[in-house]
Design brief:
Length: 177
Amino acid sequence: MIFAILYFLKKNPRFLKCRTRAKEKEKQQNLLSIFPTAIFLAGFIIPGFDYRFAWSNVPVYIVMTADIIVLLGYLIIFFVFKQNSYASRIIEVSKNQKVISTGLYRIVRHPMYLGILIMFLPTPIALGSYWALIPVSVLPVLLILRILNEEIVLSDNLQGYKEYCQKTRFRLIPFIW
């Protein structure tokens, strides 16, 4: 994370400023933002209890594999940030914003959310906890709800987004959805 912050401080400080805004403009997104925060916290707190009380016994090779997958997800998110300086934490359309349709955006319409799934779903295993998979397993449903609402906002407010959706058919997972 430090590498990414230093990179964007040097290359695109405006992007970092945009990423620090957390107050959603869309009412539905305000509600949806509470649950991922709770899931995120549970995904890190439960492994601590799991370790303390020895609830899970995840083999080291599985933990290491999950660590590599988490890193892959983080790298996807980093490349999304490089490709799309409009990738805000909140659902909004900025002045002069253009549709990004190259790089990872050529494959799926929401590559950042794909990276989030790849990064967060195996995080409990990377932390040695099977039990933390329970709250984290709700994350895909919440991201789907966020994507559906986000696409309405983008279709209504971002010129060229409807055409982009026709070209790039898959929202989150290539060849599936």
